[in-house]
Amino acid sequence: MKLIEAWHLSRTPYREVVYRSLAEERGRMWWGAFGRSHFDKEAQGDVELTQRALRIAKFDKLLVAAFCLISSTMPFTSLFYGSRVVGLASSISLSLVVTFGFTVLYAIQTLSSFVSAESSTLLSTLPLSKDDFSRITLFSFIRSVDYLMVGSILSQVTLVAYLTTSPLATLLMFVASTMNGVFAVTVALWFSRLFYRNLMRGGRSKSGIALRLVFILMWGSLLLGVGLLLSIPWYIVPHLEMALLNFDQVSSLFFCILYPFSAGITIANLVYPTVAFSAVLTASVAVIGYVILAWVAGRWSLETVKRISQGTGVKIARVAAKDFSIKTRSSLLGYIMKDLRISSRNPATAFFFALPVLETVIVSLLITNYAMLKASTILVATATGGIFALLMPLALLNAEGTGLEYTKTLPVNATRIITSKALISTATFVPVPLTLLALAFLKQLTSPLVILIPFFTVLAIASASIFEIKLFLASAAKGRIAALARDVEKLISGAIIALIPEVAYAAAYFVSFNHILAILAMGGAAVAELAVAVYLLRRS
Amino acid sequence: MSRTSSLTFVPLIEASGLSKQFGSVQALADLDLRVMPGEIYGLLGPNGAGKTTTIKIIMGLVEPTAGWVKVAGFDPVKDSIEVKSRIGYVAENPILYESLSPRDFLEFVASVRKIDRGAVNQKVTQLADAFDMAQYFDSPIATLSMGMKQKVALIASLVHQPPILLLDEPLNGLDARSSRLVKDLVSLHAQKGGAVLFSTHIMEVAEHICTRIGIIHQGKVIAEGTLDQLRSKSGGKSETLEEVFLKLTNEEGEVADTSRMLGEAIFNK
Questions:
Q1: Do B63 and A341 touch (CB under 8 A)?
Q2: Which has the closest alpha carbon to B6: B190, B193, B165, B162?
C-alpha cells in the first residue's frame, strides 16, 4: 500500500479515536435532553451527534494549534531583555517548553482513547497486511497532533530564520523543534498508557488509590511547571546570563545540561558567539545526547503504537472480588462520590483535582514577597485562586459523559446534581482561605478583619458555581452543543459573580476608608448572592 | 411487593392515544397500552417499530407528541421522581458510567434510590453471585463485555424491588444461564404482583414468558392478546409466534421473496 493511501485510510480510525475521547470528555452532548420539555430528533440522533462531535474536535484542534502557535512566538519577546545572546537562548528554550506543554496536554486527551486499542478493531477485520495495518494505525496516531506539531515547528523555525538569518541556526532549530515534538508525544503516550492501565486495573486497593492521587498531582505539577517557566524573563534570565558568561557554578552546568536550555544555548551561540567555551561544549554535548534520546523515544513510540495496533499495548489483569458488599450513602453524598470518582478517572478532568494545590501555591507565591498582608493583596490572591476553582463545575459536567443517560432514569432532580457539583467546586477553593489564615499568623495585617475576605469568597465561589451550572444546563436544554467559546462565556459569568463581593469591598473602602464597613459590604454581597443562587437552585 | 398488592385492580402502566413525531418520522401513532399487576406484557415488533420509543415515553425520558401515560397513577413527565422510583429499567443498550466498577455503580444507584444498606447488600450479593460477577465486580465497566454490562444494569434495576419492570431487550448479550435466570426472575416478579413490560424481537422468549403480547408495527399496536388469541386472529391454530407475527404484519410473503432474491444475488455465481 502506498503511503498516501495509508494516510487517507488513517482518517477513519483517527476519527473514531477522536469521537471516543469526545464522547467521554465532552459530556455536554449528553446533557442535550436534560430538563427539556421538548425532545426532538436533533438532540437524540446519533448521526447528528457524531457529526457535531467531529466538528467540535476539528475546532478544538485548530484552536489549540493556533493558541500553541501564538504562545510559542510570545517568548521571543525575551530578546528585549538583557543581552542578545541571553535573550535568544531563553526565548528558544521557553518556546520549546510551551509547545512541549501544550502538545502533551492536548495529546493526552485523545491518546487515552488510542491506547485502549479499540480504535483499531475496525481495521483488524479487514484483509490488510501487518505492515499496512501498523502504518495506518501510526498515521491515525500522528493525526492527533499533526496541526500542533507542524504549526509549532514552522513558527519556531521561521522565527529563528528571520531573527538570526543564520542557516545553521535555522537547521538546528528545526532539529530541536522536531525533537521537542517527539519528546512531547512520547511523554503523552507514556502518560496515557499509565493512566489507562491504572484505570483499567480497577479495584479498591489503597495502593491503587494512592497511585491515582499521585498521577493527579503530577498533572498539577506539570501545569505549575509550565506556569513557573513562563516567568523566565524575570526569574530565570539573570541566572541564565550568569551561566552563559561565567561557567563556574553548579547552576551553570545545570542550565547547559538541562533540556531545552541546552538547545537554546547552542543555537544562540551559533549566532552570537560570546558564550563561555565550556558552556557551549557542555550544551552541545547535551544536545547530541538529547538527539539520541529523541531517536530512542521515537522508536519506543513507534513500537508502542505497533503493539497497540496489534492489541498487545496494555495488559489488564482482573482481581476477583472477595465480597459483593456495597456502601450506601445519602442521596447527595452518593452523587458527590460518583462525581469525584468519574472525574478523577478521566484523563481530561483528573488534573482539575490538582487545582487546590495549584491555588495554594499561587496564593502563597503572591504573598511571600510582602511583609504586610494588605487587603488589596488578599483580594488579588483570593481572586486568582477563585478563577481556578471556577473551572471545576464545567469539568464535572463534562465528566458525566454518556453515563448521564442512566442518571436520567433515576429518581434524581437537577437540584441534587447542581448541589453536588457546586459543593465539590467550592471544596477545591477551601485551601485558599486556610493558607491565607496560616500566613496571617506569620505576617502583619492592615486590619484583622481582612482575613475574612477569603472566607466570604468561599460563599461567592459557591454562588458562581451554581450560576455556571445553571447556565450550562440552560444552554444544553436549548439543544446547543457548547463549543469552547460557550465555556468561556460561562467562565466569565462565573468570574463576575465571584468578584462582585470583592468589588463591593473595594467600593465600600474607597468611599469610607473603613475596613469594618468594607467587610460588612462584602459579607452582605456574598450572602445576598448565595441567597439568590439557593433560590434559583430550589427552582431547578 | 407490599406496594403492588394495594394496586391489584389498577393498571400499573396505562397509555392512551400515544403519538410521537421525530421530524418527518412518525415513531408512534395512536398507541394504547395497559399492563396490569401480575402481568408480563411482551412488546413485540420489528426494528424501528416503536418499542423503545414507547418504553422511553413510559419512563419519562421522551415526551409524547400526543396522548397520555400513567405509571402507577403518576404522570411520567410531571411526577418523574415518583415514576422513576417505582420502575426498574433496563435499556436496549445499557449506557452506564464506564469508568466506575459495578460495585461503585451499584453504590451510586442504591444511594440515589435511598435504599437501606442492609437490604441492598443482601440483594446485591445474591444477584451478583447468581450472575457470576466475582471476576468483574471491581473492574471498570468499560472493560466488561456487553453481557456483563447487561447484568450490571439488571442488578441495578432490581435492587430497589420496584413494582414495575421496563425491560428493553434485556437478554441482549446474555449467556444461556443468565438468560434463564432473568426469565425466571421476571416470572417470579409477576407472580408476586409486579408488572413487567418486556420488549423483545425474539419470538421464543415472548412465547414462553409473556402472559400477554402486543404486536407493534409502524408505531401502532396491530394485535394484542395471549398467544392463542393471536393465533386465532392470524387465522391459524398450530402456528409459532414467528409465523403469527409475520402474518399479522403482512410480512410473510415479502420475507420469502426477499430471501429468494438475496439467495440468488449473493450465492449464485
A1: no
A2: B193
Question: Using the beta-carbon criterion (under 8 Å), do B106 and A40 form an inter-chain contact?
Answer: no
**Within this chain, do residues B19 and B74 fall inside the same structural domain, yes or no?**
yes
Q: Which helix (H) or strand (E) holds A278?
A: helix A277-309
Closest to B172 measured CA to CA, from B203, B206, B200: B200
The ipTM, to two decimals, is: 0.85
Distance from CA of B101 to the nearest CA of A (A): 7
Is there a single domain that holds both residue B174 and residue B83? yes
Nearest CA in chain A to B24: A41
Nearest CA in chain A to B125: A324
Identity (one letter) of the amino acid at B187? S
The pLDDT tens digits of the residues spanning A149-193 come to 888 899 999 999 998 889 999 999 999 999 999 998 898 888 777
Chain A to chain B, count of Cβ pairs less than 8 Å apart?
149
Number of domains observed in the structure of chain B: 2
**Which residues of chain A make contact with B116, given a CB cutoff of 8 A?**
328
8 A C-beta contact, residue A371 and residue A442: no
Distance of CA A200 to the CA centre of its chain: 22
Closest partner residue to A328 among B98, B115, B135, by Cβ? B115
Element (H, E) at A500: helix A484-512
Do both A300 and A352 map to the same domain?
no
Parallel, antiparallel or unpaired: strands B220-225 and B66-71: unpaired
- Any residues with CB less than 8 A from the CB of A206 and at least 6 apart, and which? none
Q: Which pTM value belongs to this model?
A: 0.76
pLDDT tens string B40-86: 999 988 888 888 899 999 998 888 999 999 999 999 989 989 999 99
Contact status, residue A25 vs residue A348, Cβ threshold 8 Å: yes
| A31 close to A397: Cβ distance less than 8 angstroms | yes
> What range defines the domain where residue B260 resides?
228-269
* Smallest Cα distance from A132 to chain B, Å: 28
Contact at CB, A341 and B99, closer than 8 angstroms: yes
Instruction: Note whether A54 and A18 are within 8 A (CB).
Output: yes
Residue contact A41–B137, C-beta within 8 A: no
